[in-house]
Amino acid sequence: MSIINRKKQHIKICLKEKVEEKSYFDDIVRVYNALPDVDFDEINTKVEFLGKELNLPLIISSMTGGTEEAKEINKILAKVAENKKIGFAVGSQRAMIENKELSETFFVRDVAPSTLVLGNIGIPNLNELSSEEIKNAIKEIGADGLFIHLNPAQEIAQKEGDINFKNSIKLLKKLVSELDFPIIAKEVGQGISKETGEVLKKCGVKAIDVAGVGGTNWIKVETFRGGSIPDSLLNFGIPTTCSLLELKNLGVDLISSGGIRNGLDIAKSIALGAKICGIALPFLKAYEKGGEEEVIKYVDRIEKELKTVMFLVGAKNIEELRNKRYILRGLTKEWGEQI
Ligand SMILES: Cc1cc2nc3c(=O)[nH]c(=O)nc-3n(C[C@H](O)[C@H](O)[C@H](O)COP(=O)(O)O)c2cc1C
Q: Could you give the C-alpha distances from 208 to 30, 91, 192, 218, 281, in angstroms and in order?
């Protein structure tokens, strides 16, 4: 099956089937402050990421490109990202490297001239694509950096999956050394461990997006496409909250994603060391429900909720929010005790 058809199916399945897991964010409690020394109207949610200022610690995670529908989705999401000053990432650019005519379905700089825009390519593709081709794909869309997705669990569940990950560390290291823009490693929903984080740091990645268990489940998405995996492994991986704990002391900027659904999840992720957060499927659903208007409403709701949590814990800015106390319970607590 062509990549284009596969990407079309991904969107359809993600919108129609039950592919979202319950997150573990209930395991984190932000501690209430009954006497906050804060004026709600002065709360500042700005952060800097990869040299760009964002109004919220938020990026629309990598999803799509390659078709007319994908072009429309990318344009609307990127337009809102620009207006709200949050980040935006395109989906895997392999299709545009293989077929130049598809580049325009990934290009969003016309609607998002200034905000953080990131490209995307998969680790399995490093076998067949040269650094030069990847560099050109990033330049062509004017991106500020590149997400490399690491997805062995998705590939093994996928009908036509690429399950030879041999040499991937060597290839990633080579790519980082040959490209002159930031590279961020990301999972797609199964999380990243401390050991993998250490390898990624040695490879020279600028940041890591944990993309853990608790949001869109890509093993399940692939089984809906006819792939298979033993039932016992349908939810294999590291929950987002636990993956953040795994990487907290690594000394690399972290993105929290995989099941982030609201401003409270963002406030919890910040406490566990995330610099910014990523959200994918809810943005696609908002687009599907009501286009630009719904996407704007969703960002506004997240902003209002994040600011409200900040008020209730007594934090005037994101740094203060990070340093306010939190309580861990359940699996996330147990996991943290055993790292
Ligand atoms: C429709 C769709 C397409 C996606 N395509 C890509 C992709 O091309 N590259 C990638 O790195 N991640 C891709 N992802 C994964 C997301 O970037 C994200 O890591 C994952 O869905 C977890 O976030 P969520 O729970 O907020 O959806 C896709 C997600 C969705 C929903």
A: 24, 17, 9, 19, 19
